Amino acid sequence: MVEHRFFFNKEALVIKGPKKSHALRMFMLAAVMICGVYICSVCLTQLGIQSRPRKLKMEIMEAPCKNPAIPYYEIPYVHYPEPNTYSRDECACTPVRFFSIVSMQRSGSGWFETLLNSHVNISSNGEIFSSKERRGNISAIIRALDKVYNLDWYSSAAKNDCTAAVGLKWMLNQGLMENHVKVAEYFSRRGVSLIFLFRRNLLRRLVSQLANDHDRNTKQLNGTHKAHVHSTNEANILARYKPRINTSELISTLRHTHKFVTDAMGYFRNTRHIVLYYEDLVQNRTKLMDVLEFLRVPPRKLVSRHVKIHTRPLPKLVENWDDVYRSLEGTEYRSFLNANYDL
Ligand SMILES: *[C@@H]1O[C@H](CO)[C@@H](O)[C@H](O)[C@H]1NC(C)=O
Ligand SMILES: *[C@@H]1O[C@H](CO)[C@@H](O)[C@H](O)[C@H]1NC(C)=O
Ligand SMILES: *[C@@H]1O[C@H](CO)[C@@H](O)[C@H](O)[C@H]1NC(C)=O
Ligand SMILES: *[C@@H]1O[C@H](CO)[C@@H](O)[C@H](O)[C@H]1NC(C)=O
Ligand SMILES: *[C@@H]1O[C@H](CO)[C@@H](O)[C@H](O)[C@H]1NC(C)=O
């Protein structure tokens, strides 16, 4: 029947007739097929599709998963990865969003990431670029990113449920700023969304950083260094240490950090993004729901075992508070001196 319909469609090209030998019919059939393939390939070339075989493949693979609920302007952010390392069959048509948390050390991103990972459909793979090897050049960076977004990166963030958002945590000083042009290009090409997470109060961040550096050397928790803790007892031990802040370089340190953040947001301003501040999240957990909405995953209560280390007001956290106060009052950073929050 198929053959019959075929001849009917190509009537103009085929000499019909019961008298034709079987061999001749087979020959004509082959000729028609070759001709069809040729016409098709000419069309593809003209459409410029052949020079981009990846796109062609994607279109073919994605066709069966077309989801009418996804508005057309979101299509570039919707992916159907096919991992090399396992079969994603049962989740094949679960759309996946790609994200990267862009942050700085001691800005609450560890806590934030554990919150995200408590969602069954989110998999955030940590600071993959803490390894110098992986961020040594742009090809190494892209290889690592591809692996994450292809769902082939193995980490404790792996889920048994269908992943609907996959990403990583990328610190500004881990090759992101040096390679910003190529990385922004990559984000745009692959439809990656960014979650900027910074601190409003850079002075508090500095205190946390100095205290963390101190613990790296002194290992106050039974001889191990911990950047994050899971109990108030551990938090209290770490918070006992009050750093001295070198006031002669304080303003330039704050200015440098501030510029780093502004530059980063400028470099990636055309990438789809959301900007979060740690202080806002601490004060208003509902803000986390904005993140879930941004990632297009269903709302859900998020939990983390992390316990905040520095909970007291700033004057109680710094050894030479009076010096610090004097150096910042009357400057553009004076607001850092008073901004505290209730917990
Ligand atoms: C990039 O870095 C990787 C891993 O460190 C290395 O193997 C590769 O040779 C580097 N490529 C270039 C072009 O420098
Ligand atoms: C989340 O995972 C569950 C379990 O695998 C799955 O049924 C559901 O479709 C996923 N949700 C989304 C938004 O992908
Ligand atoms: C240190 O170890 C002791 C004995 O194992 C334990 O009781 C204590 O809770 C530990 N302290 C911290 C801060 O982990
Ligand atoms: C404070 O910073 C200045 C300028 O960088 C440096 O010369 C000085 O040694 C530092 N003081 C201390 C106590 O580290
Ligand atoms: C908390 O955050 C949510 C989501 O952004 C917002 O709608 C709400 O107004 C915030 N509440 C307060 C008290 O700021």
Uncertain runs: 1-20, 48-57
DSSP summary, beta strand count = 5
The set of bound ligands, ions and cofactors reads: 2-acetamido-2-deoxy-beta-D-glucopyranose
CATH topology: Rossmann fold
**SSE ordering:** HHHEHEHEHHEHHHEHHHH
Number of helical regions: 14
**Principal-axes shape call:** elongated
Biggest β-sheet, characterized?
5 strands, parallel
Rounded to the nearest angstrom, the distance between the terminal CA atoms is: 75 Å
Question: What structural keywords apply?
Answer:
343 residues; 8% strand; disordered N terminus; 5 strands; Rossmann fold; 5-stranded parallel β-sheet; binds 2-acetamido-2-deoxy-beta-D-glucopyranose; alpha/beta
What does this structure look like?
The protein has one domain: Rossmann fold. The protein is an alpha/beta fold and 343 residues long. One 2-acetamido-2-deoxy-beta-D-glucopyranose binds next to loops. Keywords: Membrane, Transmembrane, Transmembrane helix. InterPro entries: Nod_factor_sulfotransferase, P-loop_NTPase.
What is the structure about, briefly put?
InterPro entries: Nod_factor_sulfotransferase, P-loop_NTPase. The chain crosses the membrane at residues 26-49. This protein has 343 residues and is of the alpha/beta class.
Strand and helix layout:
Elements: H1 2-9, H2 22-47, H3 53-62, E1 97-103, H4 109-117, E2 122-124, H5 138-149, E3 165-171, H6 172-176, H7 180-190, E4 192-198, H8 202-218, H9 232-239, H10 250-267, E5 273-277, H11 278-283, H12 287-294, H13 321-328, H14 335-338
Parallel strand pairs: 1-3, 1-4, 2-3, 4-5
The chain binds 2-acetamido-2-deoxy-beta-D-glucopyranose (5 copies).
One 2-acetamido-2-deoxy-beta-D-glucopyranose is lined by residues 246, 248-249.
